[in-house]
């Protein structure tokens, strides 16, 4: 009997040893890492990174950074607004690359020298107060000309000299209509603007609470708040509208073009990217809205800042707006 007990104990010891702690396997050992510099929202970016890494598993891993620090990690890929990539190109920090998926983009949405490729954009929209719309009729607030043609109207608009985004709006109008006509238009609606807002969300709040009839703002600023009971709704101007175009590019210092291109192609073509953008309520619209196998967005209605990407040109246009519109006598 005692002998049997000893045998049982010995067997139990062997089994316990066999099921005991083992050295943890090294995760992703040998996987290559691509560093992504992003100027987008951190949560949105990290969700993109997680989705890419799950898809690639141990083959390739993506890591995001949000600053370009002297002596810091050197990024391989950039995801940012067009003006940022234009600046990096002027500094000689981007590497021209050609790839088949990038060729699918209309020429308007990619750099002529292949330094960047557009992925999605943030349009300027009208946020219309529901009560005001019931008064004048929704059919009468559909276009830029509808705003200029009103006799009485309260418009909320951010100060156009405040940020890259507001300056892109100004430049997008000027690129579309020419400087003189765009400044004349802004002068016409200037009488409806009691005070230009200091903060981007102020026009959204003013339209929602009824302190303004229409806010001219970015879709990304309002998308998180839109719901059935929200007292304002979004209008896409029927003629088209200025946008912030977000693009991808490859840094000159990258040592593995093929791995960087995998990230760029994924951002441009993967349905997951669009799904994650929707889950994060970014408000961004994709250049291939119905999928990469379908037609690209209508470039005629997407007004880019193409002529004022250099600071000196943008500052010149902004100063003209300040003198001829905002502080005009």
Provide a descriptive summary of the structure in words.
- With 329 residues, this protein is of the alpha/beta class.
- The protein folds into 2 domains: 32-121 and 244-298, Periplasmic binding protein-like II (D-Maltodextrin-Binding Protein, domain 2); 122-242 and 314-325, D-Maltodextrin-Binding Protein, domain 2 (3-Layer(aba) Sandwich).
- It has 13 helices and 10 strands.
- The chain has helices at residues 2-18, 42-56, 82-90, 100-103, 130-136, 144-148, 164-177, 179-189, 202-209, 219-222, 257-269, 271-279, 311-326; strands at 32-38, 60-65, 77-81, 117-129, 155-157, 214-218, 232-235, 241-250, 285-286, 302-303.
- Strands 1, 2, 3, 4, 5, 6, 7, 8, 9 and 10 form a 10-stranded mixed sheet that branches.
- Helix 2 (42-56) links the parallel strand 1 and strand 2.
- Helix 7 (164-177) crosses helix 8.
- It starts with a helix and ends with a helix.
- Residues 1-27 have low confidence and may be disordered.
